[in-house]
Each structure stands twice: as structure tokens, then as C-alpha cells.
Write a structure and sequence with these properties.
The structure holds two protein chains of two kinds.
Chain A lengths: L8 H20 L2 H19 L7 H19 L22 H20 L2 H12 L4 H8 L3 H19 L1
Chain B lengths: L6 H6 L5 H13 L1 H18 L21 H19 L10 H14 L1 H7 L4
Helix pairs in contact in B: 4-5
Classes of the chains: A mainly alpha, B mainly alpha.
Chain lengths: ~170, ~120
């Protein structure tokens, strides 16, 4: 078969760039950190694709993304980060009623704030599941933990989030 | 009775096989605490999934294009089309009064809209 399962770097950037940005933004609540992370991940993907051997692409990509994120967090440890920006550039381009926009921004801010209060392991699990949309198996592969642990973290993460939102 | 615990999230996420789903359904019928917990995690899951998908800043992702014209562009295009159509079709009966400031626009609109002129200029096959 002449089929090549390895995507090009441009394809990865085009198809996954926005998800990587959302992953980073939801984990940090900071657009600057999210931007830096996307650049770093795309750089690593470009390098990594040279030695990529066909496997679960999602697991591979999100392992790279996660490692890049953790490296960035370590690197910036000494720099205080802004908990939640007043920047709502990304809320969408459609034009619903102003009161709906305000309500959705407020709700989104509440959820984002509650998300940032979760311990990292739980935040990461729910973001990979509910924001990025990965299956448990893919999360297990990306994070390097058993599927049972993924399930437990997602469930506990959601329960903690619910408590903070109520 | 053992409660469902994290199987509730797995149930919501479609991560249980058919036997697991059946067992969970049987348990939920009889167990109110699990039904309450299911409602709680479902609401958190819904809140997360309802967060807006953010667009990456322009230029950050190579090859990413806007999928739709923005409302501002659509309005601008619609206004331009309306203007041209209005100028070509709108005047109706000839008007003896000549408005010097619109004369140029009217002329341009006719030149653009006139199939004869367009053919002569080679704009159409």
C-alpha cells in the first residue's frame, strides 16, 4: 500500500493547532502562555515528525504537547502568572445578543476560574477529556498512566469542579 | 451496596461496554446517591464542554485560515452590491436633473453593468 500514515507538519499545525491552543489556555488561563506553548509544541512536532513511527498519532501528539507544557511551567515557575485575563478575544465571531454574550463570558470565566483551582493532575485530565475531546485510552497514552487512573482523575476532577461552581 | 463512583463519568463519556452500561443502569434505578452524583458530574462535564472554543491569535498557526467571512465583511459586500444594483436599476424614468457629484458613479456603474460594454471589453466570453 502506498498510503503514508505520517501527517505533514503543516497538516498537524492546521488540524491540531487550535486544540493545542485551547488546551494550553484552559490549563493556564493565560493567552500569552498559550501562545508560547503552541509555538513550542509545533517546533517539537516538526522535529519529532522526522523520527515518527506510525502509532497512535493522538497519543504521540498529546504526549509532546503535555511535556512541552510541563517544561514551560517549570521554566516560568518564578514568573507570576495572571490568573484570568480580561481578554475575551476568542469568545467567537458570531454576533449573538449582547446580554447572551455577557452571560456566556461570565459563565466561562467562572468555569475557567474553578478549573484553575483544581490540582494539576485533575485539571489536565478533564481538559484532555472535555476540552480536547480525547478518549480515555488516548489520555492514558499521552499522560503515561493506566486507563483506570484516567477515569478516576476525570471523575474526581469533575466532582471538584462542580463543588467549586456551586 | 457498592456505589458506581468513577464509572459514572465513564458512563457519561461512552467508555463503558454494553454489560457495564447495563449494570450501571440497574444500579442507578435503585441508588439515589449515585443518581445525584451522576447529575453533579454531568453538570460539571457540561460546563467544561460548553466553554467557547478559542481561536488562536492570528498568524500563530501556519496554514490556518478563517473559515467564514466576518459579519463586517458580509455587510460591506452586501452594501456594495446594493449600491451598484441601486445605481443601475434604481433610477427608473430618466431624470433631466444632473447631479454632478453622482454622475461619475452612475457612469461607472453603467459601464460595469452593461453586457454590451463588458463583451466589447472582453470581460465575458
Amino acid at each position: 500500500m502506498g498510503e503514508d500514515p505520517t501527517p505533514s507538519w503543516e497538516e498537524v499545525a492546521r488540524h491540531h493547532g487550535r486544540k493545542i491552543y485551547n488546551f494550553a489556555y484552559r490549563l493556564t488561563g493565560n493567552p500569552d502562555d498559550a501562545r508560547d506553548l503552541v509555538q513550542e509544541v509545533l517546533l517539537r512536532v516538526r522535529r519529532g515528525l522526522e523520527s515518527y513511527t506510525p502509532q497512535s498519532f493522538e497519543g504521540w501528539l498529546w504526549r509532546i504537547t503535555r511535556n512541552a507544557f510541563l517544561d514551560e511551567v517549570r521554566r516560568r515557575k518564578r514568573r507570576p502568572s495572571v490568573p484570568l485575563p480580561d481578554d475575551d478575544r476568542g469568545v467567537g465571531e458570531a454576533s449573538p445578543a449582547p446580554e447572551d454574550v455577557l452571560a456566556s463570558i461570565r459563565l466561562g470565566e467562572d468555569v475557567q476560574r474553578a478549573l484553575l483551582e483544581l490540582p494539576y493532575d485533575f485539571r489536565e485530565a478533564v481538559v484532555l477529556c472535555d476540552i480536547v475531546g480525547l478518549a480515555y485510552e488516548e489520555i492514558a497514552e499521552a499522560v503515561g498512566i493506566p486507563v483506570g487512573t484516567v477515569r478516576s482523575r476525570i471523575h474526581r476532577g469533575r466532582a471538584m469542579l462542580r463543588k467549586r461552581l456551586s | 451496596m457498592t456505589h458506581l463512583g468513577d464509572l459514572l463519568s465513564a458512563l457519561l463519556d461512552g467508555e463503558l461496554d454494553s454489560a457495564g452500561r447495563r449494570n450501571a443502569a440497574v444500579h442507578l434505578k435503585e441508588c439515589e446517591p449515585c443518581r445525584l452524583e451522576l447529575a453533579r458530574v454531568e453538570s460539571a462535564r457540561g460546563a467544561l464542554r460548553g466553554l467557547p472554543v478559542l481561536e488562536a491569535p492570528p498568524g500563530l498557526i501556519p496554514g490556518a485560515r478563517r473559515r467564514f467571512l466576518s459579519p463586517a465583511w458580509i455587510s460591506a459586500i452586501a452594501a456594495s452590491v446594493a449600491l451598484v444594483v441601486g445605481l443601475v436599476i434604481g433610477p427608473g424614468a430618466p431624470d433631466a436633473t444632473v447631479q454632478l457629484d453622482t454622475l461619475g458613479d452612475q457612469h461607472n456603474a453603467r459601464v460595469v453593468g452593461d453586457p454590451g460594454i463588458a463583451t466589447f471589453r472582453g470581460d465575458q466570453p
